[in-house]
Structure formats: C-alpha cells, structure tokens
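Sat 14:20. Reprocessing the chain from the morning session after the first attempt stalled halfway. Input below, unchanged.
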Amino acid sequence: MSARLISQPFLTALGLTFVLCLSLAQDFAGAQQGVAATAASVAATNDWVTWGYDQERTLWNRAERVLNKDNVGQLTLKWKTHMPTPPREVVLSTLTAPLVATVNTPQGPVTRVFTVGSDDTVYGVDAKTGSIVWQRPFPHNGTPHDLLSGKPVTPDYRCPGTQNATPVIDKDSGIIYVSTSDGKLRGLNVMNGEDRMPAVDFTEPFARNWSLNLIDRVIYSPTARGCFGILSRFTAYDLKTGRR
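Finished this time. Tokens:
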C-alpha cells in the first residue's frame, strides 16, 4: 500500500516534468527558427556595417564564399597601416572595431575600411592598399567632471573619457554615423568624410557609450559603467524626426 501511495505522486510529477520539458524544447526550437528567419530575411552581404556584422550582433557573415576550414590557415598579411591616433595608458582600445563597406565613387565602387580613434578622429582606409583616403578629427578639449559633485575626475582604464563606440553605416544613404566624446552624434559621407548632417546632442560628454546600432532609421547606443556620475541608459535618436 505504501509503495502505491508513493509511486502515484511520483509518476504524476514525472509526467508533468516531461510535459514541461517538451514545452520548453518546443519554445526553444521556435525561438531558434525565429532568429534564423530574422537572419534570413536580411539579404546577405559582404559589407560589415555595424559591430557584430548585423543588427542582431551575430558575428556571422552569411555571404562568405571564399574562406573555409581548409584554407583559412593560409591567410597572409597584405598590408598594415600606422594610424595617427596616439595610444594612451588609460585607453584599452585606441581604435574601434573596423567596419567594411563598398563605397560608390566617381571612379566606380571601391571597398573601404572605417575606424574611429580614441582621439575622436574618423578614418576611411582603402581596403586594397591600406592607404588612408580621408580622416576627420573632432577634437574635444574639455575635461571630465563628476555630474553629481561637479569636481574634476582623473580618467582611468575603466572610464577613460574617450570615444569608445564602433560607428554604424547606412549603406542606402552612404552615411557613417559616429558618436564622439563631446556627446555629439555625427553623420559623415562614406566617400570623403564630409558632413551629411549637423552634429546633434546624443549622450553626455565623456560617457562610456558602446557600439551604435541602426534599426528602422533609429540609432541606438547603451551607456554603462556609471562613469563620471553618468547614469547607465539606452539612448535612441530618430533620424526621421531628428528627436532623441
């Protein structure tokens, strides 16, 4: 009798556990299919226009047809370029992660590499030769102060007070959007670095904001670490309305 009393609740619990696991597995499979559908809905391209390749930050170039497990070990260095941005002891990343995009010029399409220095200089580099095609400095001569106390703060590697965010490229408009350490958002022509929009307020100056993302004509960037009394937050700027 006691064995029967024990086994019945146990079997019931086991059955419920199985149903729950099955439900979770189905939900997980559905989520995976949703991610795959989202990735598949975006046309694969060799352009790397945002940190992590795409809006979902998958780090997966779905258009790659050259590199494979058999030849990737044969990669060789074709060029290297010295960028003028000087390294600093408190800056862990002197340059942002590079972006790569095809740019239409009067002479035809070319491939360019884009990066931003910790000194707020934006670079456009020829992907074939490594030569710097254009550069735009946006010097910021201010010094960090704590927003709460108003006292000056000495930067360190956690909060260097420098530009940190990888920019984002809008291929349709030919604009690279960059945030700089003065808290401004800028839009530059990918061909020559000329202004394509006035600088607008985006984050607090010296904020530790991270890589930009462009979704439905809205630019997003998270700010973290609470540097200089700046609250962690998400910032969004609508390019259609010009409102933050």
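The first helix runs from residue 2 to 41.
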